[in-house]
Every structure is written in C-alpha cells, then in structure tokens.
Amino acid sequence: KFLEVKKPEKPKNLPPWQHYSSRYYYERVKAAFNEEWARVRKKVVAEGEKPDTKISVRSEVTQHMYEQESEGFKEQLKAEAKEDYKRRLVEYNKQLGIDKSLPSAERRQW
Predict the structure, then answer these.
(1) How far are the Cα atoms of 8, 12, 28, 83 from residue 69, in angstroms, in the given order?
(2) What is the mean pLDDT of residues 25-44?
(3) Which of 10, 53, 78, 99 has a CA positioned 20 to 30 A from the CA of residue 35?
(4) How far apart (Å, rounded) are the C-alpha atoms in residues 34 and 57?
(5) CA–CA dist 30, 108 (Å, integer)
(6) Residues in contact with 103: Cβ distance below 8 Å, sequence separation at least 6, in sequence order
C-alpha cells in the first residue's frame, strides 16, 4: 500500500472572541468560567435539569468576557487576528507548495 499523505487543513478565520480565547483564556477568562461552571453544575443537581455542555458554557463566558473589553482593545485584537490568519494562510499555502508571491501563471504546478 502506498504511503498516504494527509493534506493540511485550511486555516479558519476565527471570530474575534475565539481569537481572544486562544490568546487570553488563562489570564482573563478561566476564573470566570470556573465560577460559572460550578454554578451551572450546582443548579443542574438542585433542579434536575439537563446540563449545558462544558464547551457551550465556556463559549458563553468567553464571549461575555470579550464584550466587556474596551473598544480599543477589541480593535487591536481584530487586527491581530487578521494578521494571524494571514500568517497561517501563508504557512498553509507553503505546505501545499503554492507561492502566492508569484504571478498566477508561474504558480501553476502542471
């Protein structure tokens, strides 16, 4: 059997709150998430409700914390996220052997 080569996954352009989470989760979100998760779990036990998933609670808390940040901070984060996406896209194209700096006719790999 031939060696199977896995194609790299194309990077995603994350929403600003997800980029915020990847950069600031431990220093700005985690404590609030832990509090909210403990509260949700107590409520589930007390009221017998179906629990929210941990990831959905984490997403809600992260979005809330992101919205509490200043507009200046959010604008800076959006610019940073855009640059990060561009960097990851360049790396992805390199892995595919595509050099976007060349004119399109020279990029073709026949």
Answers:
(1) 34, 23, 10, 20
(2) 93
(3) 78
(4) 10
(5) 46
(6) none
